[in-house]
Write a structure and sequence with these properties.
The complex is a heterodimer of chains A (289) and B (128).
Chain A: H1 2-29, H2 35-39, H3 42-73, H4 82-91, H5 93-114, H6 120-132, H7 145-177, H8 183-213, H9 225-251, H10 257-281
Helix pairs in contact in A: 1-3, 1-6, 1-7, 1-10, 3-5, 4-5, 5-6, 7-8, 7-10, 8-9, 9-10
Chain B: H1 3-19, E1 30-34, E2 40-41, E3 47-51, E4 61-68, E5 72-76, E6 78-84, E7 87-95, E8 102-111, E9 117-126
Parallel strand pairs in B: 2-9
Antiparallel strand pairs in B: 1-3, 3-7, 4-5, 4-8, 6-7, 8-9
Amino acid sequence: MQDGLILCRFVHFGAVLLLFGVGVFRQVLFARWLRAFEASPARGSLERALGALTAIALISATGWLMLTAANMADDWHDAVDPQTITLVLSQTFFGRVWVAHLLLNLIALLMAWRWGALAPRAALLLNTLLLLTLAPVGHGAMYDGTQGQLLILNQMLHLLSTGTWLGGLLMLGVLLTCATVDVRSVLSRFSGIGYALVAVIIVTGMINVRALSGALWPTPALSGFGLVLAVKLLMVLCMLLLAAVNRSLARQSQLRLSALRASVLLEGLFGAAALAAVSLLGTLPPMLV
Amino acid sequence: MSAPRVKLALCCVSLLAALTTTAVFAHAHLESQLPAADSEVTTPKELRLTFSEGVEEKFTKVAISLDGPGAGTEIIQTQSVSTDPADKKVLIVVPAVPLAPGKYKVEWHAVSVDTHKSEGVYRFQVTP
């Protein structure tokens, strides 16, 4: 059950973060830079890919619900038992959040399927809400009162900036494969925004760790939660290093596209690895007794 | 982001970190219970289990059994298992019939509000 849950978390977080990040990149941060791209045929394939991603998000969210039901009731049969599923959805904190989350995902899928291309702003709003409703699920829920709400707010900021980074990375990859826009200026602007993003990610991440483990670093430092956290941090540091490489590549007089492509791809892979580590973290206790 | 701003941000973080000093555990742990573990009490009306975080009443199970001397164990039926409306961390277990004198074992399986599971066991004694 736990393995399945980790997989669902990984797929779902990945899909929702990318959906949000790509939307922000296209509608907010780089709308002016992407006019040529939005008019090119590459746009159609991107829209189809995003539609598929929304479907993947819905499937993994459903899997997450079923596995949580089975896990709570301690019986595999409860994953498909309508009574248990209803009980989870109506009577637990996770379930109440998930009702809203699933509904948003369903509407997002309908939009992507029918009117996504017509109302990109509405789609972005939906995907933002979809990402935000992931914040209360998991360790963030363990406090009540103001402290709990602040931790959830902190988690929202963490998710928004992570999504913007990962989605932006995906868009950079897309733009590098179909050279319809001025990649150099997009890249240098994105790495500028990247500084702010990374700062928010690190600060909110530190607050999370402090709140969950009661220390600057969980004890034991290098086993269980601490170890996975260390791996995650290492992945993020590798991403930062590659982001610096991207920046210097973009500044060279001769733009070396193949090197840039490889560097962006590698940075994306490190991002996926960091996400895999997070998916594991959510199932581990931050502190062992 | 400029260097002074980064410094300011880091200062804010350390301040925030210093403000929240309580250590917590993400999986619900039993912090206290009434009747207390290993205590001797007269027939209690209900059992109160206080956890380190909120628990889901629909998925948290508590089994009370009478550890009879030599006679094996007898499961005590419960009338209700529910969280305190004012505090989701407190689970109230009401036995269907008053607990007769004897040694009791309480086994709990908790599901916390962040969907994690934990379990434990303790004993207490009811004196005439």
